[in-house]
Structure formats: structure tokens, C-alpha cells
């Protein structure tokens, strides 16, 4: 496998109800349309990555996620966000093709899945155990390139309200990353917007949500009118990567009108 292809979906915020909306978008139809769009345009990847907020504080939403993503015939790599219930998530997704946390080796890459959720808090933090797990995963990766994924942003998004709910111990996390030479990218969700940066040779990538987006660089909370989106990643044998954010526009094939209906 000289090129490893991933499709990254994040922050679907599902409910048990199939029609429930969040910030003006019915979340299950939005996720369904986003997945259909990816399957029509960028399929199949080697694995799917989902970086948290799978549900909106409603564990009944996991059944929808399991139905949609369990039938793809692909590994589905998951980690929890601040709106997930990690215990329920692990119970609901405790079988193949789902992987929750830990790491997975695919081809020449190691994909690391961190849990940065703190019960009852919108902010994130990596526990001592998570940091030790990251250290071990990077140390034992051999000659594989590493992609590290988590829910919360480990660098400032230059958005005052969002930067109050980022990764509290980002310094410790980045110090761990800096001790190793094999990390090629850090990927997160939570911020509901596109972000691409570079830090000490490591690509920094945030992916918009499969439902409503947040306005970049806003001091106070504000919804952006951008449509749902996902990200494709092409991870190459030399450690380089090619990535693209795909916005699911209103006239896209398979895109249901109800995705965009106002609340
Ligand atoms: Fe979210």
C-alpha cells in the first residue's frame, strides 16, 4: 500500500430522533448526505476517521452512526468529543469495523486516536495515561509515519470563545510530539471550521463538521453559513500528504433539502 487514503468526518452531533436539528441543521440527514457525497466522489478510502461529537449528549444517536458506518466495509476509527459519552460510545462501537481509541497501523502509517474529553466540560485535556499512551505509540512506531488525531484543538484558532474550550494541556501534548521525529500530521474536530497550518514540519488540520459550522476568528460564538463538509487525506509512503476539504453544496448529488432547512 504505497498511498493510504482516509476520509475524515467529524462532529455529526446525532440524536436518537432522526429529525432533530442543531443550529438550524437536521444532523442525521446532514451526516447521511455528507457520507453519500463522499461515496459518490471519493470512494473507497482505506479507512474512515471520525474525531468526536458523534452524538449531541444523546447516546441513542450512536445506533444511527453504527448503522450508517458499520455497513461501509471499512475500518472506522473513532475517538470521543465533549458531547459524547465515552462509556456508552465504547459499548455501542465495541466491535469491528469500529475502533475506539488506541492506534491502528495501516501500511506505512500509524494512526493514533486520543481521548481528550473531560466529563461535563466543553474543554479538553489529555490524561497522564493518554499522554503516556501517545508517547508509547510514537516510540514503538518503528519506521512508520504517524498521524495523531484528537477532538480538541491543540493550537489557538484565533477565536476568543473557541480558544477558551481548547486543549487545556496543549503544551504537554506538543512537547510529546516534539520529542519524536515521526509525526507528520495532527488532525482534530471540535472547531467546526477548516484550518490548515504547519508547526515544526507537522501539518495541523481541523475539519469542518458534517452539520453546522462556526465562524472563523469570531470573538463570540457565531454560526457560519458554510454547508456540511468532510476531508480527504492521501498519506504517502514518504510521509507527505495531500488533503482536501470537500464542502457538500446544496445542489450536490444525494444532498437532501432538509439538511439546510432552518430550525
Ligand atoms: Fe462539535
Question: Please, could you describe this protein's structure?
Answer:
With 263 residues, this protein is α/β, with parallel strands linked by helices. The protein has a single domain, classed as Purple Acid Phosphatase, chain A, domain 2. Helices cover 21% and strands 27% of the residues. The strands form four sheets. It has a six-stranded mixed β-sheet with strand order 6-5-4-1-15-16, with helices on one face. A hairpin with a 2-residue loop joins strand 7 and strand 8. Helix 4 runs parallel beside helix 6. The termini are far apart. The relative contact order is 0.19. Bound molecules: fe (ii) ion. The site of fe (ii) ion has 6 residues, from loops.
Keywords:
single chain, 263 residues, alpha/beta, Purple Acid Phosphatase, chain A, domain 2, six-stranded mixed sheet, 6 helices, 27% strand, globular, binds fe (ii) ion
Task: Itemize the secondary structure elements and their pairings.
Elements lengths: L2 E7 L11 E2 L2 E2 H15 L5 E4 L11 H8 L6 E3 L7 H7 L5 E3 L1 E5 L2 E5 L14 H12 L5 E6 L9 H4 L6 H9 L4 E6 L6 E5 L2 E5 L6 E2 L8 E2 L4 E8 L4 E7 L16
Parallel strand pairs: 1-4, 4-5, 5-6, 8-9, 9-10, 10-12
Antiparallel strand pairs: 1-15, 2-3, 7-8, 11-12, 13-14, 15-16
Helix pairs in contact: 4-6
The structure holds fe (ii) ion.
Amino acid at each position: 500500500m504505497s498511498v493510504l487514503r482516509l476520509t475524515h468526518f467529524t462532529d455529526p452531533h446525532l440524536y436518537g430522533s432522526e429529525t432533530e436539528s442543531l443550529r438550524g441543521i437536521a444532523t442525521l440527514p446532514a451526516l447521511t448526505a455528507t457520507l453519500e457525497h463522499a461515496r459518490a466522489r471519493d470512494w473507497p478510502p482505506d479507512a474512515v476517521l471520525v474525531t468526536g461529537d458523534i452524538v449531541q449528549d444523546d447516546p441513542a444517536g450512536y445506533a444511527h452512526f453504527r448503522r450508517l458506518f458499520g455497513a461501509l466495509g471499512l475500518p472506522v476509527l473513532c475517538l470521543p468529543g465533549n458531547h459524547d459519552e465515552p462509556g456508552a460510545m465504547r459499548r455501542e462501537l465495541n466491535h469491528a469495523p469500529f475502533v475506539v481509541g488506541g492506534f491502528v497501523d495501516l501500511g506505512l502509517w500509524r494512526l493514533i486516536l486520543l481521548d481528550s474529553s473531560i466529563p461535563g466540560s466543553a474543554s479538553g485535556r489529555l490524561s497522564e495515561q493518554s499522554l503516556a499512551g501517545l508517547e508509547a505509540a510514537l516510540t514503538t512506531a518503528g519506521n512508520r509515519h504517524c498521524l495523531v488525531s484528537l477532538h480538541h484543538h491543540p493550537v489557538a484558532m484565533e477565536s476568543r470563545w473557541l480558544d477558551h474550550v481548547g486543549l487545556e494541556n496543549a503544551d504537554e501534548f506538543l512537547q510529546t510530539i516534539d520529542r519524536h521525529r515521526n509525526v507528520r500530521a495532527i488532525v482534530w474536530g471540535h472547531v467546526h471550521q477548516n484550518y490548515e497550518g504547519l508547526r515544526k514540519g507537522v501539518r495541523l488540520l481541523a475539519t469542518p463538521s458534517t452539520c453546522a459550522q462556526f465562524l472563523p476568528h469570531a470573538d463570540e460564538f457565531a454560526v457560519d453559513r458554510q454547508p456540511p463538509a468532510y476531508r480527504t487525506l492521501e498519506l504517502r509512503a514518504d510521509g507527505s500528504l495531500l488533503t482536501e476539504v470537500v464542502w457538500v453544496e446544496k445542489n450536490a448529488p444525494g444532498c437532501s433539502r432538509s439538511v439546510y432547512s432552518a430550525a
